[in-house]
Amino acid sequence: MLQVEILLVFSLGIYCRRFFHIYEHIPFFSVPILAPLIILSIVKWSVFERKDKWENYVKEFNELPKWKNKVGVSVTGIIILFVFLNFVFAVNLNLQPNGLKW
């Protein structure tokens, strides 16, 4: 599941195009744009999904006290909310006059 990472990479791409004028002439579906997504996919697969390593993480977190799990869920929720709002802001920048044309 790469939803959060994809939103973050798209936001960074919009910011690079908008503020630094990087990759303005490169199509969206090209190697420089899609390379971070491919790298993230490979890293995430090798760390979590290969040989079902994620099951060990689930067992480890299930053994934590309830208050630590609540703190972890809160921190994770705040990070996901921040990334989502960041993406919404970036798309809003893109849609403004003189914004980017994909």
List strands and helices in order, with pairings.
Layout: H1 3-19, H2 31-49, H3 54-62, H4 66-95
Helix pairs in contact: 1-2, 1-4
Give the termini separation: 25 Å
Q: Unreliable segments (pLDDT under 50, ≥5 consecutive)?
A: none
The helix/strand order is HHHH
CA-based gyration radius? 17 Å
Mean pLDDT comes to 79
- β-strand number: 0
- Structural class from helices and strands? mainly alpha
Q: Estimate what percentage of residues fall within beta strands.
A: under 5%
Label the overall shape. Answer: flat
The profile of the biggest β sheet is: none
- Helix % is over 70%
Quickly count the domains: 1
Q: How many helix segments? A: 4
Polypeptide structure, described:
The chain has 102 residues and is an all-alpha fold. It has one domain. Helices cover 74% and strands 0% of the residues. α1 packs parallel to α4. It starts with a helix and ends in a 7-residue tail after the last helix. The mean pLDDT is 79. Keywords: Membrane, Transmembrane, Transmembrane helix.
Task: Write out key terms for the chains shown.
102 residues; mainly alpha; 4 helices; 74% helix
Summarize this structure briefly.
With 102 residues, this protein is mainly α. The protein is 74% helix and 0% strand.
